[in-house]
Write a structure and sequence with these properties.
11 helices; 0% strand; 78% helix; mainly alpha
Length: 289
């Protein structure tokens, strides 16, 4: 190798090292930047929200009139009902559609159309979903918890579809071929082999969907609206934490603002708890294998 080639290779090596160092620096700065602001947000949330949780009857009283002390009991129960029903309705549909796209659709025209429509639904603003359900279930009738749950279910479906399809596509084909070699039918392969192998990823998709709908306000403004009083009647307007946070945060009263912080903290804790639980279950599953 000539001296010229050696010098050229050394120059290329130095440029690559410099590019690698710059990339690592920018990546590190990005991580620090994101984590700093995330930490500040969580610090403020826990500081203000925990103060309200400790000093106010959050779990024993309903939402009060402006500038009065009260709690969030009706909003907590209403959110559990509406969000839970939306998750229950949307999750099976999303999982089945994801299974179809990953295991049965291949390059069929129906699979392509389904995937395209799911991408549109995934990127659609939540307020558009709320307006759609408003026109379908509320207009000419009345606001209701059922309409709110259906709006949230439409937000759950595309997230679960995309995650389920991607997780099933990560399962190696050798696992499918081994099951076919043993005479396993297609439905048994999907339910007992591929879906079982991808269940941790599917569960993650369900949690992502829950995290998305748990704080959605716009769809509920057009569907479930709100209710200052305690009610479990899904056929009527029902209280929910996102709308309570929106209304109480915009009021000029410190007491109302504290209730809004408490509601935001409760939603954050719910999402955090479910994510920790999912991590624990997946870790236990891996250790058992």
């Amino acid at each position: 190798m000539t001296t010229t080639n050696i010098n050229r290779n050394n120059a290329i090596y130095k440029r690559r090292r410099l590019s690698n160092a710059l990339g690592l620096v920018f990546a590190g700065l990005s991580i620090v930047f994101g984590l700093t602001f995330l930490g500040l947000i969580l610090f403020k949330l826990f500081l203000s929200g925990s103060h309200a949780l400790l000093t106010m009857p959050i779990f024993t009283q309903d939402t009060p009139s402006p500038n009065e002390i009260g709690g969030l009991r009706n909003a907590i129960i209403g959110s559990i009902m509406v969000t839970g029903l939306g998750l229950v309705v949307g999750t099976p549909i999303g999982i089945m559609a994801g299974i179809y796209l990953a295991e049965f659709a291949e390059n069929s025209w129906l699979g392509k159309v389904t995937r395209f429509m799911n991408d549109i639904l995934l990127s659609a603003p939540s307020i558009v979903i709320g307006l759609f359900i408003f026109a379908l279930m509320v207009q000419g009738r009345n606001f209701s918890g059922w309409a709110g749950a259906m709006a949230l279910a439409l937000l759950v479906i595309p997230v679960v579809v995309r995650t389920t399809e991607n997780m099933l596509r990560l399962i190696p084909n050798t696992l499918r071929e081994a099951a076919y070699a043993l005479g396993t039918p297609k439905w048994k392969l999907v339910t007992s082999v591929t879906l079982r192998a991808a269940k941790t990823g599917v569960l993650t998709g369900i949690l992502l969907a829950f995290a998305r709908i748990s704080g959605e306000t716009a769809p509920l403004l057009f569907t479930a609206l709100n209710n200052q009083f305690f009610s479990t009647d899904m056929g009527q307007p029902i209280a929910n934490l996102p709308n309570v946070i929106y209304q109480y945060a915009s009021q000029p009263y410190p007491i109302s603002n504290q209730l809004a912080w408490a509601g935001a903290l409760l939603i954050t804790l719910a999402v955090l708890t479910l994510n920790i639980l999912a991590r624990a279950l997946s870790g236990k599953e891996q250790s058992s294998h």
